[in-house]
Design brief:
The protein is an alpha+beta fold. 33% of the residues lie in helices and 32% in strands.
Length: 248
């Protein structure tokens, strides 16, 4: 991994942190301890923020921090993590979980879709719809709303309608010429009908209209249908991250 590669990765990691903000963040020796009441792993995990940041003392500090706040300790390990961090966690009994690819694409395929409406703010209907489609609990609903309200960058909230019914939702956040795509979800009864493609293309088009030159997203390696869709839209893998969680 070259220094330039790590700089590029750090820029994408920073965009991701900003696009999906934790409600609280603690800085610790080049690492970020992110906290959002336990809602989503990304917003409640310890992350390397500086390339090669030392892992010395980080595990103990993170374990104490998350215990204090009553949520499980989770480490998210990107290529920014110091060599040896992953092995230390594995040796301590932490299990590897959710390997994920960060992928990027040009906006050449972006296109408007007549059934997708986009707003610059999250409406009550959008929040209710996306939380219902994701099956979140009442407590998670409150946390999700607070996190969405915390997004400080230009954003697009997409809703796909079919016969007057809102059946698909998505979020895009623009920063430094790149548009990040998040939480693209379709109601379970309406999946595998091309709606995810329509939402993705519409959000990419919004990014292009706002001056972005590329899009990026994060997709779990085991999510084969999503991986195929994004590859078909021109997304190419840039780097991998995974989580480490305490073993049973």
């Amino acid at each position: 991994m070259t220094h330039l590669d790590l700089i590029t990765i750090r820029a994408l990691e920073e965009r991701s942190f900003n696009a999906w903000p934790a409600l609280q963040t603690v800085f610790f020796n080049g690492w970020l301890f992110r906290l959002a009441g336990g809602y989503t792993k990304r917003a409640n995990s310890a992350n390397a923020a500086d390339p090669g940041a030392s892992f010395e003392g980080v595990r103990g500090a993170a374990e104490a921090f998350y215990k204090r706040h009553g949520v499980p300790v989770v480490f998210r390990l990107s290529p920014l993590a110091a060599p040896g961090a992953d092995k230390e966690l594995a040796d301590a009994g932490y299990a590897l979980f959710d390997p994920t690819q960060v992928a990027s694409a040009s906006l050449a395929a972006a296109a408007r879709h007549p059934s997708v409406s986009i707003s610059s703010a999250a409406s009550p209907a959008w929040l209710e719809g996306i939380n219902a489609a994701n099956g979140v609990t009442a407590l998670q609903d409150e946390l999700h709303r607070a996190m969405v309200r915390s997004i400080a960058l230009p954003s697009a909230f997409a809703t796909l309608h079919e016969q007057g019914e809102a059946i698909g939702f998505g979020l895009a956040v623009l920063e430094r010429g790149a548009v990040g795509l998040y939480d693209i979800v379709v109601k379970p009864t309406q999946r595998r009908r091309g709606h995810g493609r329509a939402l993705t293309l519409a959000l990419m088009n919004w990014g292009r209209e706002e001056g972005a030159s590329s899009a990026y997203l994060q997709v779990r390696e085991q999510n084969a249908p999503a991986r195929r869709l994004y590859a078909d839209l021109g997304f190419e893998d840039l780097y991998r991250y995974h989580y480490r969680v305490p073993g049973a």
